Amino acid sequence: MRWHALAIASALVVATQAHAADKKYGPGASDTEIKLGQTSPFSGPASAYSVIAKTQAAYFKMINEQGGVNGRKINLITLDDAYSPPKTVEQTRKLVEQEEVAVILNPLGTPTGLAVRKYLNDKKVPQLFVGAGATLWGDHERFPWSIGFQPSYQAETAVYAKYVLKNKPDAKIALFYQNDDAGKDYGNGFKKGLGPENTAKMVVAESTYESTDPTIDSQIVKLKASGANVLFMHAIPKQAAQAIRKIGEIGWKPDMFFLAATSTSVSSVLQPAGFDHSKGIISSYSFKDPNDPQWKDDKDVQAWHDFMKKYFPDGNRQDQLIVYGYVVAEATVQVFKQCGDDLTHENIMKQAANLDVTLPLMLPGIKLKTSPTDYFPIEAMRLQKFNGEIWELFGETIGND
User: Fold this and answer.
1) The dihedral of CA 86, 88, 91, 96: what is its sign?
2) pTM (2 decimals)?
3) Which terminus of the chain is more exposed, N or C, with fewer CB under 10 A?
4) What is the dihedral of CA 173, 49, 241, 86, to 10 degrees?
5) Tell me: the pLDDT tens digits for 188-224?
6) How is domain 25-150+296-379 classified at the architecture level of CATH?
């Protein structure tokens, strides 16, 4: 009997050791926790975007209360970088070298993200779902540890350009965007969508602004004076609201007014600008808008409202940035589910580059899909127009494979 008991005990020890050996952990991961790092502008000119980080913290709290991911709780550490690249460098180094996080999740901004891209790739730390759509975030060959999330800015503006060519072939176009890599990507994308011949013929004015500019009034007045009857604008929420209001106040009524999808928040952009000035603006979207009556009986939208009520009661439900933050958090949970018990940096990045899933708040027909050679998780969208109260979708899904 004694030898029999010893044999069973030995077998159990071997089985336990084998099971433990199946688990692989890199920095920031253990049997009980997955530690994520993030930089977000809680202060500075882009502070409206900080609601994304707040949403994700609330979402992970919900997931943790439900038992976590594969039994592990998600610990999100978010540091303020004020939308300042030097500050992003400082805070990211702190997250990697002191906190030893598993990933840098959804850091906000192209100029800020670029400031740490080489550092994170040299360290082989996943820069996961960067909160920007500059085309350079798809550079999987040179920067395999950095992956974007939303449709690329060039893909987005190509949709607007094609809409103009189809519906107003004699347009006089003005382009207004932020003077950084993101803004230039938007401007170049619009021109690329028009084609060289149409760009030379149709683009009559182009102007930029700095994220630190206290006002953009002079640029708007200059663009109106060009005689343009179609306007495309990329701006962070503060300047977007200023510009829309100024356009309305000086009586400029472009026949078409396209607004970059990064600044479509009703609460932080359109409401401050004035709904009367915002009516008729066109943009694009890939998610369900919980304020759109067509989704009032949708179970996934109802689940979002339940989440908001319990975990983020102070959040403004008219802020589309909250929906974005929620979807990114869902995608992050999907990555960690796929990781199983292998939570090394290598496997986290491998799973992020092998996604094929439809998340609950995505519009019908739009998927989250990546591959080792495709670092743009979302590549489809629909056009939407602001009716003075909410955004209304129109047209077909564009960019779906």
Assistant:
1) negative
2) 0.90
3) N
4) -70
5) 999 999 999 999 999 999 999 999 999 999 999 999 9
6) 3-Layer(aba) Sandwich (3.40)
